[in-house]
Amino acid sequence: MTASEILEAIRSRSALVVGDICLDRWCTYDPALAEPSRETGIPRLAVVTTEVTPGAGGTVANNLAALGVGRVAVLGAVGEDGHGFELARALASRGIESEMLVPSPGIQTFTYTKLINAASGVEDIPRVDFINRHALPGAVEEKVLERLRACASEFDVVFVADQAEAEQGVVTARVRECLNEFAARRGDRVVWVDSRLRCALFRRAVIKPNEREAEAACRALFGQVDYERLRRHVESDLVMVTRGAGGVVVVEPGRQTLAPTRPNPNPVDICGAGDSFSAGAGMALAVTRNPILAAWFGNLVASITITKRGTGVAAPEEVLAAAAAMPPPPNC
């Protein structure tokens, strides 16, 4: 299939993103307006503009919507706070269904706030993150599980975004087990997992770690890097290890193939590249059933988003232009 055919096919497909659906806030501050506070004497940080986008699993959903996927929905947990309101509005403005998000006053909406210097255009002071210090409340976990069991089978592709670096995220042990059970009986659906620290705990799904994550999992399990052994451990027919500019290692039973990416010597922002790859490759896999072709398509999408500041997306016309510069691999 060509890029054009893939883009046309995914218009009639559906995707659900399960897990850590976060908010990215890009706040531009003007250092010239740093007047000291009358009360404390501490200079203020004067934010003059704010842009918000869905982050983490929301970045995957954002890319899916931009590519033209017919139906895109998210399932996770958010706080009953201002950031949760902003996230719901950002999702709605992109045509992403957010009704399956579970609101709770007992948690904060996971939010990354990046502070950009208006004079230099550079993020030059520490990011401000709104995080949760405790595990997901039991009542919230139950609602996530209920919605996952009720709705997952409605979708052609289920993406899992396990972003949290500790156990405070949405993909708890019970949610992960539910996903593993769903993957075991998925039929012709694609279950696509991107887990920052726990990829080795998933089963029978497509596993997409980056190189550092895959190597860490291998060393913890086997004492050495062995992608084929990792594939067998997770009981999957497919593992894709992303390597940035080094392309993607496609691990299938009995073979490993390097899928190169489109060269870009001057990327603007690599933030979210893995998420945009997942969106493109996961949907391409659903319509082509060809892992090499799926990796090629995912690489096209990521090669576009890294040319944009922030967690950018790739429009169909941009993907077509990129495909003209890097045609699909032979025999695909």
Please give a structural write-up:
This protein is α/β, with parallel strands linked by helices and 332 residues long. The protein has one domain: 3-Layer(aba) Sandwich (UDP-N-acetylmuramoyl-L-alanine:D-glutamate ligase). Helix content is 35%, strand content 22%. It has helices at 3-10, 57-67, 82-93, 138-151, 173-184, 211-222, 227-233, 273-288, 291-305, 316-325; strands spanning 14-19, 21-29, 47-56, 71-75, 77-79, 102-104, 111-117, 128-130, 157-162, 190-195, 206-207, 239-242, 248-252, 255-259. Strands 4-1-9-10-11 form a five-stranded parallel beta sheet, sandwiched between helices. Strands 3-2-7-8 form a four-stranded mixed beta sheet. Strand 5, helix 3 and strand 6 form a beta-alpha-beta unit. Helix 1 crosses helix 8, helix 8 (273-288) packs antiparallel against helix 9 (291-305) and helix 9 (291-305) packs across helix 10. It is globular.
Percent of residues in beta strands:
15-25%
CATH class category name: Alpha Beta
Largest β sheet strand count, sense and barrel closure: 5 strands, parallel
Structural domain tally: 1
Strand order of the largest sheet: 4-1-9-10-11
Shape: globular
Helix-strand pattern: HEEEHEEHEEEHEHEEHHEEEHHH
Q: Which ranges are low-confidence, i.e. pLDDT below 50, for 5 or more consecutive residues?
A: none
CATH architecture verdict: 3-Layer(aba) Sandwich
Number of strands: 14
**Based on helices, strands and strand pairing, what is the structural class?**
alpha/beta
Mean pLDDT: 96
Q: Portion of residues in helices?
A: 25-40%
Cα end-to-end separation: 7 Å
Q: Please work out how many helical segments DSSP would assign.
A: 10
CATH topology: UDP-N-acetylmuramoyl-L-alanine:D-glutamate ligase
Output the CATH homologous superfamily. Answer: Ribokinase
Using only C-alpha atoms, the radius of gyration works out to: 20 Å
